[in-house]
RNA sequence: CGGGGUGUAGCGUAGCCCGGUAUCGCGCCACAUUUGGGAUGUGGAGGUCGUAGGUUCGAAUCCUGCCACCCCGACCA
């Protein structure tokens, strides 16, 4: 059994890998750096998809799908973009295999592609190439499209959920007539992400803007939500980019304005990925396994019967059926674990490992007393409550659990944002406490680079809610107008 | 891609230095007894040691290549 993060913070990754495997969420596949997401893990991703997708639709977006393969030449069109991705792409060069005569399957050299295809690391290029044909007039704008897809980035170093070679995500790509509108879209979507992270995942996040050196390749401005994991490292959980007219210019996407002028379109892109599952796991899990917030949990309530005879079982079944009906009517998802192949204690431990928020145990004794045993995953506490009114009690309790999980993570996060005014303090906090460090910085990439080399910490963001204040850069002593957050990150 | 480490049954491991076809635990199967926190007993099945070569009478063990994973670095959602 894994020991948990508090006792093994230095060995966090191993613990994390143990946990996700033991909680049956995912495993490494036979393909380098890729993962198999197992059914229970995928169910969690599906919940994320469903909730996010609903928000995208509510904010006026539609889903579409673009090709997996992107002609290599598309990458030559936006210089800074290719610079950011060229190093880590999978490239398709041939389209046929053949038998070499001895039973070995080899690549048929005669089937070489004239132009290589890139497996998308992100879809800006192929989408903007397509948008050129969709946009002629201001009447065609805005285009508000999202894509659910997989992408591939040939990372040198991979990590389950956090940085796999292939990952699942959604990428929104919008086109607008004005800069203002595009910026508003960028901000709207980072807020959608932040609300999702906090309200659904119960992971508190800091909304902010990336510094120039941390920006997305090809973006003019990158908004981010930054979460804090229990080991004191920060995790970028979602980004929303204002792309200006860079892609419109690169792919020649123009429209005729109301005034009859030809203008380049303004763009945004935004995305979250299966990395969110990593954030979820690392933000809430404890030594007993996963802790899922009720709003996200594929199974919110598990019911475990405890019985010796068939009569007792039938008795419990009848009660569970009525409880089931009551809870389903209130959109509570329930699992009645009446397997007779496992004992109750085993089931308790297993569902705890999987993070099910609430467990109801009912035995013959309960049936006599008109009670059940309720166990909360988040606090690990148990109480015996009356069967009467159980449905509404559970609904209320699920809300309470959701709040509690968030509050716990928020307290941890807030107690790990440390304001410092000297480089000595800065290093001390990073080394001994972890978390975010708020300090003045002269705004130059050179200083960021130096700090990273010396401390491994990078700027995570300039929080949107930070006020301007006069100060001096703690590294160079140059004047600064605003604080920024540094942290070690994944 | 550079440095370090690992790869033995579904999982976790011993054996490797000092070559002689593999240890233990969990899990799995059968039966019995059990069932309010990961049951117990008895019996049983399952591996040829990541992979391809080499050395040797003989390789899990020694040597080389390759692959994968983990850690550190560079890179990144």
UniProtKB/TrEMBL annotation:
One of its GO terms (molecular function) is proline-tRNA ligase activity. The gene is proS. SMART domains: ProRS-C_1. InterPro entries: aa-tRNA-synt_IIb (IPR002314), aa-tRNA-synth_II (IPR006195), aa-tRNA-synth_II/BPL/LPL (IPR045864), Anticodon-bd (IPR004154), Anticodon-bd_dom_sf (IPR036621), Pro-tRNA-ligase_IIa_arc-type (IPR004499), Pro-tRNA_ligase_II_C (IPR016061), Pro-tRNA_synth_II (IPR017449). Homodimer. SUPFAM superfamilies: C-terminal domain of ProRS (SSF64586), Class II aaRS ABD-related (SSF52954), Class II aaRS and biotin synthetases (SSF55681). It holds the Pfam family tRNA-synt_2b. It is found in: Cytoplasm. Belongs to the class-II aminoacyl-tRNA synthetase family. ProS type 3 subfamily. This is Proline--tRNA ligase. It comes from Sphingobacterium bovistauri. It catalyses: tRNA(Pro) + L-proline + ATP = L-prolyl-tRNA(Pro) + AMP + diphosphate. It is an enzyme of class 6 (ligase). The keyword Aminoacyl-tRNA synthetase applies. Its EC number is 6.1.1.15. Residues 27-293 form the Aminoacyl-transfer RNA synthetases class-II family profile domain. Catalyzes the attachment of proline to tRNA(Pro) in a two-step reaction: proline is first activated by ATP to form Pro-AMP and then transferred to the acceptor end of tRNA(Pro). Keywords: Aminoacyl-tRNA synthetase, ATP-binding, Cytoplasm, Ligase, Nucleotide-binding, Protein biosynthesis. Consists of three domains: the N-terminal catalytic domain, the anticodon-binding domain and the C-terminal extension.
